[in-house]
Amino acid sequence: MSSVKWMVVVNPNAGHGKGKKDWKQIAFLLGKYNIDFCHCFTERPFHAIELTRDALMQGYRHFIGVGGDGTMNEVINGIFDQDKIPTEEVIVATITVGTGNDWGRMFEMPVDYEESIKIIANGKTTLHDAGVLWYQQDERREKRFFINIAGLGFDALVVKRTNRQKEKGKKGKAIYMWNLLMSLVVYRHIHTEVEIDGRKVANSTFTISLGIGKYSGGGMMQTPHAVHDDGLFDITIIKRMRKGEVIRNLKRLYDGSIYDHPKIEWYRGEIIKINSDPVIHVEADGESLGHSPIEFRIIPKSINVIINPSS
């Protein structure tokens, strides 16, 4: 690994300040395992996108995101939101200091810094799909890339409330569950028309998930059969449910039995278009975005990611 130069993009605010607090320890361990690197700190939302894109133009092809799933998402956007460097030439790794680690969970990536850095030093990679979505933000049409899961409807509401509380300094894995329960009080079902590779499905919808990966929300499996390199989204549509029914079936989100419920539909596809009445909001990799109309497209085997050799 000593012949490779890595750019390490550090979110100092990740994990409620752990990114900054633990950086010296992480830098020491990177040196211990002979990983040659430069580093930069993010200073504001979306800064990691700029830093990654700039580093690409400077010749870097190896990136480590130090932060949570949001930091990883911004690094991915910095790589994909340019057209000069083929994304297949880039390798990405993550060192988790956030609270989620949902993308890394699929590849059994450890949260322990030294164990994580050992895996990076080992250098085992896999070609990974990515996704891109177009959505409405006020009067603008916006675009965002993602590598794990996007959620619409109830899921997007829970993520938005959770992110607001994190910004206020609240922490802990229980935040997501608390906001899930509180969001049930105010959420209203939305009529959606989902077009999956030309096939239209209409429902009164509770929530929709599109997964490249399996995990979100701190270990929930809303797309439990997703495969990271099959060139397809897994689409889970949860239809109208009573609040009590949602609560009684929460365990299905953790034990992988979500598709056994009669009000849950499962599809696979490459191009997904979603319209709704009223508008439905969307999040991707835990980042709150805009609303419908929304279009998703898969980008097959388009980025190399470091994975645990034993996964």
Task: Pick out its properties.
38% strand, 311 residues, two-stranded antiparallel sheet, single chain, Rossmann fold, globular, Tumour Suppressor Smad4, 6-stranded antiparallel barrel, alpha+beta
Description of the structure:
This protein is an alpha+beta fold. The chain has 2 domains: 119 residues, Probable inorganic polyphosphate/atp-NAD kinase, domain 1 (Rossmann fold, 3-Layer(aba) Sandwich), CATH 3.40.50; 169 residues, Tumour Suppressor Smad4. The protein is built from 10 helices and 16 strands. The longest helix has 14 residues. The radius of gyration is 19 Å and the shape is globular. The two termini are 21 Å apart. The model has no long low-confidence stretch (mean pLDDT 93).
